[in-house]
Amino acid sequence: MSFEQLLQYALSGITNGSIYAIVAIGFNIIYNTTGIINFAQGEFLMLGGMTAISLSSFMPLPLAILAAVVITSFAGALIDFLFIRRLKSPSVLGMVIVTVGLSIVIREIALHIWDEKVRSLPYFTGNEISSINIMGAFISPQVLWVIGVSSVIVVFLGVFFKFTLTGRSMRACASNITAARLCGINARNMVTISFMLSAGIGALAGCVVSPITQTQYDCGTSLAIKGFTVAILGGLGNSTGAVVGGIVIGLLEAFSISVLPLAYKDAVAIAILLIILFVRPSGLLGKKEAAGLKEF
Amino acid sequence: MSLNKIIVSLLCATLLPVAISCKKKSGDSIKIGAIFSVTGPASFLGAPEEKTARMMVDEINARGGIDGKTLELIVKDSAGSPEKAISFAKQLIEEEKVYAIIGPSTSGETMKIKGICEEGKTILISCAAAEVITNPVTKYTFKVAQNDSFGAQKICEVMKKKGIRSIGIVTSNDGYGIAGKEQMEKAAAKNGIAVLISEVYDKKATDLTGVLTKLKAKNVQAVVNWSIVPAQSIVPKNMKQLNMDAQLFQSSGFGNIKYAKEAGEAGEGIIFPCGRLLIAEALPDNHPQKALLMKYKKDYESKYGEDASTFGGHAYDALIILEEAIKKAGADREKARDAIENIKDLPGVGGVYNFSPADHLGLDINAFDMLTVRDGKFVRYTE
Questions:
Q1: Which residues of A touch B11 (CB under 8 A)?
Q2: Contact in structure between A227 and A30 (CB atoms under 8 Å)
Q3: How far, in Å, are B179, B191, B374 from residue B195 at the CA level?
Q4: CA dist., res. A275 & res. B1, Å (int)
Q5: Model confidence over A46-74: pLDDT tens digits?
Q6: What is the pLDDT of residue A279?
Q7: What average pLDDT does range B361-378 have in this prediction?
Q8: What is the ipTM of this complex?
Q9: Total structural domains in chain A?
Q10: Mean pLDDT value across chain B
């Protein structure tokens, strides 16, 4: 294999990996506050993408994306308010099941609001045919946007969860909800904030990846499955881990394509994921002690 | 009702298949069943098919029906699931006792319900493309969509003229893609074109630069992408991003202008086989399909405000064939079956139909024209 090809596979892996990573980050936020996996995370992406596409026909792109993020985060708050908040005894499993149901409901609603057609946002820089030449290999400028936006989100979340009072309260809720309540933290509000935050970030992710992946009412599910895999690989709750996990899975897939038929791509990625989890059950960057406190 | 119960019932309501049926009680009406994947992954086939079928039935009933008999259309949405298609087929045959079933939209579903219709002695006019549906011929099963092999052969003819000797094939991992892969490989072998690499991708694939890098490394002169999924717009974009200069061919599944729009500038120059609906305006006035194509296009576009597609045309053809059969045979289903086998020179959206006891498709390779994308529009391909 020539150097250019090697590099091209790597860039292709990074393209997919960065998409997985930006999706995975969304899972981590709700997990960090509630200890649950929000299976409607993919639908937040779809909602964000679809809303931005609809709005972009009568406002400039940046404004449309901003509005989509705001609208979707309110949708996130609404979901928490209508469903999660009202659970009498919010067990982890109960909340997970609610999110599974919600993902189906949101998908059906989206099908009725929009339709079954595939749409996409325009490329942020250049268009469908522009590509950047990196030493003989090529990459779409949109991929750089995805990587850039993921990095900004990771830094933002890192600062938010470590240094702000709200962020720390949210983490306290996940570690031990009773103790957090005793300290005077309003746990229910923290859950609402986490839903808003993860819906907003999901929407932003949905907008950034839309030119590459295209958006359709049911595109959330398949993105979410990969994102979930990556979140586990990186260590649940760890945003840097999500990026590392995403790139690792993306690269593994890309290089498996170079030697094996494409059909085995997922099998290879999942096999390696399993091996890593046998060796490090808490994920690449997850902490063992932290994982021990969670219900899963 | 407690909130939990509301949530549960809400979930149930959305999970239940969306079965839309228009019940109209009238003495002299003929029930036509339709199974389309109106939602789900094949919704771009089923949705225009459903809209077309409803439009046609309304139109027929508005002019007083066929020889005084109005049609009652019962549409079932299978969401592309063969399991749902099976239960709907049973329901339509056993409970509704329909005159005939049109659809399903996909080949996989059609093959699953073919036997049920044969057993129930009910005419099935499939809107799916796979050749196996009517080859070998079975008594009650007909189809209106052009065979995959026609498209594959057409593509090979263009390749030979362009001097293309080596190609790479990529297909989606669904019924349509797998059948297309087989036909394309067969046609290439027959025409002396070397298939250097043939890969299958996930039908939900979102980026295909990896596999296209592999094709690029093999230095293929042309790429054939055979699928009906959104990847049809991803492949051309990724090829341009990789600076590949191989010619891209796609299947007739590309015959929906929204895929060309999604591909944007990357879609320019794609060559694909397709029925004549998309180039109806450019046909000579004496072409047997011209008047009908223009009418369908106008009716559909003014009623639904979206572009007509060849897929909706399959439902159109299924209904005009049924209309012919009802005209000749009335309410007698057995006679109607025989009447379909005797249909000759019937212009439809997919081509001019000539059925016979040995041919339950009634179209040949001339049903396809080669089209290309120029300035974001479909135009007839010329060398």
A1: 101, 104-105
A2: no
A3: 16, 11, 27
A4: 48
A5: 999 999 999 999 899 999 999 999 999 99
A6: 86
A7: 91
A8: 0.83
A9: 1
A10: 89
Question: Which candidate, B301, B309, B247, B314, places its Cα nearest to that of B277?
Answer: B309
Q: Which chain B residues are closer than 8 Å to A79 by Cβ? A: none
Query: What residues have CB less than 8 Å from B58, skipping those under 6 apart?
Result: none
Distance in Å, alpha carbon of A58 to nearest chain B alpha carbon? 19
**Residue ranges in B16-71 assigned as alpha helix (H):** 43-62
Quote the distance between the C-alpha of residue B315 and its chain's center.
9
Structure-token pair, residue A221: 């599910």
Question: For residue A258, which residues of chain B lie inside 8 Å, CB to CB?
Answer: 210, 213-214
Does residue A68 lie within any of the structural domains?
yes
Can you state the percent helix, strand and coil of chain A, rounding each to 5?
75, 5, 25
What is B350-371 written as a DSSP string? Answer: SSEE--BTTBSS---GGG-EEE
Residue A63 lies in a domain: yes
Confidence of residue A107 (pLDDT cuts 50, 70, 90): very high
Within chain B, strands assigned E span 19-21, 29-36, 70-77, 100-102, 123-126, 141-143, 166-172, 194-201, 222-226, 247-250, 271-274, 346-347, 352-353, 369-374, 377-380
Q: How far apart are CA A55 and CA B208, in angstroms?
A: 28
The token duo for B217 is 């490394």
Distance set, CA A287 to CA A164, A175, A241, A243 (Å): 21, 13, 11, 16
| Nearest residue of A to residue B172, measured between CA atoms | A263
Other CB atoms within a 10 A radius of the CB of residue B347 amount to 17
CB contact under 8 A, B209 and A8: yes
Q: What is the largest CA-CA distance in chain B?
A: 71
Within a domain: residue A267? no
Could you tell me if A22 and A146 are in contact, meaning their C-beta atoms sit under 8 angstroms apart? yes
Distance, in angstroms, between A254 CA and closest chain B CA? Answer: 6
For B278-317, letters b (16+ CB in 10 Å) and e give bbbeebeeeeebbebbeebbebbeeebebbbbbbbbbbbb
Give the domains, in start order, of chain B with CATH numbers.
14-146+293-367 (3.40.50.2300), 148-274 (3.40.50.2300)
Which residues, including other chains, have CB under 8 Å from residue A24's CB and lie 6 or more apart?
A227, A228, A230, A231, A234, A242, A245, A246
pLDDT tens, A176-230? 888 988 999 998 898 899 999 999 999 999 999 999 989 988 888 888 888 888 9
- Whether the per-residue pLDDT at B71 is higher than 50: the answer is yes
Q: Classify residue A183: in a domain, yes or no.
A: yes
> How large is the greatest C-alpha to C-alpha distance in chain A, in angstroms?
62
Distance from CA of A223 to the nearest CA of B (A): 9
* Strand duo B166-172 + B352-353: pairing: unpaired
Cβ A28 vs Cβ A231: under 8 Å: yes
Q: Which domain holds residue A74?
A: 7-221
Please give the Cα distance from B235 to B206 (Å, whole number).
10
Tell me what pLDDT residue A289 has.
Answer: 61
Q: Are A261 and B7 within 8 A, CB to CB?
A: no
Q: How confident is the model at residue B11 (pLDDT cuts 50, 70, 90)?
A: low
Q: Which residues lie below 8 Å from residue A259, measured CB to CB, with a gap of 6+? A: none
Q: Where are the beta strands (DSSP E) in A231-294?
A: none
Q: Using CA atoms, how far apart are residues A245 and A235, in angstroms rounded to an integer? A: 8
Burial of B321 (0-12, 13-18, 19+ CB in 10 A): buried
Q: Which helix (H) or strand (E) holds A137?
A: strand A137-139
Strand partners, B359: B356
Beta carbons of B365 and B154 less than 8 angstroms apart: yes
